[in-house]
Amino acid sequence: MPIYDTSYRRHEGREPLRRFRSLPISREALRHILQKRVFLGLLALSWLPFVVRVIQIYVVTRFPEARHVVPVDGRLFGDFLNGQLPFSLLLTAFGGAGLIANDLRSGAILVYLSRPLTRFDYVLGKLGVLLVLNGFVTLLPGLLLYVVGAALAPETLLGLHLLWIPPAILLDGLLISVLMSLLGLAISSLTKSASVAGLSFAAVLLLTDQILAVLRLLLNAKAVRVISPWSDLRLFAEALFGLPGGQDLPWILPAAVLLLLGLGCALVLRSRVRAVEIVT
């Protein structure tokens, strides 16, 4: 009777699922988050500024003299996206605080990584949840606002000199979504408490911004603003959409800080997400 090799062979799963192994993680985490009515209420509330901006565009189309008070151009969309930052913060804090922290506390991360999943699959699955949530309050309403605005005021927003607005919305919306998602997920991986992760995320964005605002007044130095991620996101939008204050600093400075922050978050996730828990 022939003897066969019975050594361990890793289960690779069905062929159609190999490229989408992160999708079940995103789907289940998102389903769990959206079961909370408070969270659904927050999502609905985040779309109120969209309604206000649509009314603003409609009023300008009916009363052209109002353009001097509420202009319909790139500044409208820059203001709108900057105004969505608090909603992005709240959604990331409440929805993303426990994505990795809860798995670290319960040991579920070891179960995830003992299956045919890589660390990249796990992180991508969790990151997908926050990307969907942040995109829902920044990128999606921003692009939809442009579509509605173009339908109400085609002679204004469809002019050749304003065709840069949709790519700018896409760029800024993606930047906000990716940066907030990476930062929220990285902070969640640093603790086993979802509450601590949520508060830490809010503190990193808001407290640093307030401290730097005081330093800016004391030192009379505009450059200190780039140290705050919150200020960097606003500075980038101001420069991109031509908002007041957008010429204070070159756009490359906040962009470089945000890029370094994103890379730092990726390194934190790489070091914290592992199949073996190290106890010191």
Distance between the termini: 50 Å
Query: Which residues form runs of ≥5 with pLDDT under 50?
Result: none
Strand content: under 5%
Shape assignment: globular
Give the number of domains: 1
Question: Number of helical segments?
Answer: 14
Number of E-type strands: 0
Estimate the mean pLDDT confidence. Answer: 84
Cα Rg: 22 Å
> Which sheet architecture does the biggest sheet show?
none
Task: Describe the protein.
By secondary structure, the protein is an all-alpha fold. It has one domain (22-272). It has 14 helices and no strands. The chain has helices at residues 23-34, 37-45, 48-62, 74-83, 85-96, 98-106, 108-113, 119-137, 139-152, 154-157, 165-188, 194-219, 229-241, 252-272. Helix 3 (48-62) packs parallel to helix 9, helix 5 (85-96) packs antiparallel against helix 8 (119-137) and helix 9 (139-152) packs antiparallel against helix 11. The N and C termini lie far apart (50 Å).
